[in-house]
Amino acid sequence: MNPELNDLDAEGWHGLEPAAKNLMLWFGALPFLIPIVPASVLPNALMPGFWGLAVTLPVAALCLLLGLTYGHNRWRYTRWRLDDDGFRLRRGRWWQKEIFVPRSRVQHLDIHNGPMERQRGLATLVIHTAGTESHALKQQGFSLQTATLLRDALIPETRRDDSAL
Amino acid sequence: MTTAPSDALPAQAELRLHPMSWLFELLNVLRQFIVPIVFLLITGKGSSYEFWGLVGVGFMVPLAIARYISFRYRIGEDRIVIRSGLLHRTVRDIAFTRIQNVTLQQGLLHRLMGVAEVRLETGGGEKEEGRMRVLGFEQARQLQGIIRSHEHGGAAARNGSPAESAGAETALLQLPTKELLKLGLISNKGMILVAAGFGAAMQFDWQLPEQLFRQAGGWLWDHSDDFTQHGYLSYALGVLSLLMAAFVLLRIISMLHAVLHYHGFKLRGDNHRLSIERGLLNRFHGSLPRTRIQAWTLQQGWLQRRFARFQLRVDAAGGGVKSEHVEPNWHLAPIADETHIAHIIGAVMPGNAWPVAEWLPLHPNAWKREFKAPALFLLIPTAILVYWLHAWGLLLLLSHPWLWLQSKQWAKHAGYAHANGLIAVREGWIGKSWRFAEVSKVQAVYLKQSPFDRRHGMATVFCDTVNAGSFEPPLAVRYLPFEEAVSLHRALSAAITR
Description:
The complex is a heterodimer.
Chain A: H1 21-33, H2 36-46, H3 50-76, E1 79-82, E2 86-91, E3 96-102, E4 106-112, H4 115-120, E5 122-129, E6 137-143, H5 144-154
Antiparallel strand pairs in A: 1-2, 2-3, 4-5, 5-6
Helix pairs in contact in A: 1-3, 2-3
Chain B: E1 14-16, H1 21-43, H2 49-70, E2 72-75, E3 79-84, E4 90-95, E5 99-106, H3 108-113, E6 115-122, E7 130-136, H4 137-149, H5 155-159, H6 162-166, E8 170-174, H7 177-186, H8 189-204, H9 208-222, H10 224-229, H11 232-262, E9 266-269, E10 273-278, E11 283-289, E12 293-300, H12 302-307, E13 310-316, E14 330-336, H13 338-348, H14 366-389, H15 399-413, E15 415-419, E16 422-427, E17 432-438, E18 444-449, H16 451-456, E19 458-464, E20 476-481, H17 482-497
Antiparallel strand pairs in B: 1-2, 2-3, 3-4, 5-6, 5-11, 6-7, 8-9, 9-10, 10-11, 12-13, 12-17, 13-14, 15-16, 16-17, 18-19, 19-20
Helix pairs in contact in B: 1-2, 7-11, 8-11, 14-15
């Protein structure tokens, strides 16, 4: 068995809030459910009855399965760690990645929480850097408290100097 | 402030643009109409009502003059204040230290009248902060000098001459016409220009390509009897020579473009910035502070290798990058040989980071990854062809040995380096590319592992930099052995926090 990125030095990594589990599950699954619409209209219009359903139902089941797996993995396999030098984020079950943003490269941070997140006491943290791919690293599933803590911890004590540019 | 030529540009006094500014203001508005008008005149298409639009131009002349009258600027101790607008007045106050770049642009008409368009670019935003259309060339040059002397807090400028604070300018690269012709020969610009021209023509007459195609095809059809009289060989020869002629023509257009665009190309550098001058008809004077240089791309295509030449460009951080005239990435060297390239890079980067002394190889199985994906993908068109043409479709599988050879060679040349404060990746076989950046310019480090990576015990390390062009190769080391990727990720993470 080949080494996995997610198995590296497992200590010190935190998971996301349990309260975020269902929210992330369904919101993660949502895009996967879209193909169900054409899959239920088209086959039933072309061949009504048994054969139409014979196409629709398996497709719908597959979409639901994929969506729920993805949604679940999104919550389950996201881990973060705050070090002295910066913030580390691990994501993904199949396509795994670890992102490291040093404190000195953080430009500013945002905390969002929409109505559904507010209801559960959750928040989304957005880390902005000057980079291209990492210009806005967005991660949902923090409690508002943790997000605020992270925001305060990641803002550099001295004002950011432009030497990063 | 001893450096300002006070008689020419008295501090605190309000100044106006060049008296002929209104003309350029007008031309700028007209520019959008000129192409359609000329096209209509030439082809004789379109009805007279399209010319009624020209009446509107009459109203634009007083507007342009009004704009000239209302535009004032004042050069202060440490800032420039621009007042503009007739009804809706704006006052813009730009501190010299915030100005990242001053470019002068001259078209043919500008040069005839001895004026230049000045753009003041600051760090943020997509558009330049101040645009002065137009200033006298000498005045523009002086303004450029004043602003540059205030760089880096302006402390040096107050104490001494700008020459002292910036250090002496040294020439890094000059391109004689011979080199430009080589550049034209190598580049495909001719093809792009012709395609763009075609596209523009189609906007006015969408049937044009069809008509041209029909005419050409019809001509070939009509004369096919003549050709076939002389045998198919001469027919084929005719078509071949036609293609050859088209190819030669495209190359000539490329060469013309290279000469027009890069004539008198000069790259110079002092302690703070690189400056570029180029252009035959349209003259461009731009400069780039060294601190704004982010990641570098070095490329060498097959033809360039025959000439032992490279192309070097950089991503620049911040302002004006997306403004219309300035290229999105700075071509520091459109064409240059190895020693010049090393000289340019060495002038910007501290230490002997380039050329890289030792390139480290990727995972021994990296070629398999590079081979498998296209090889498997090719099976789909092969299956379709087999269904359609039967056994003949299998001929497509002949591409697999080539793919195999290509991926083997690719892996042989691929490599990475992390030393002397530099992270570098090289890839490619027939066309090679190098992508590198100072580690201190890296904003975030990614460690990635796809399921395929996992199967082979590999991982990818990706470095995110500022304004990385979407057409540039990514600064990513792919197909690394997993352990090596992890330690590279750790090493880079530690290096950028420092």
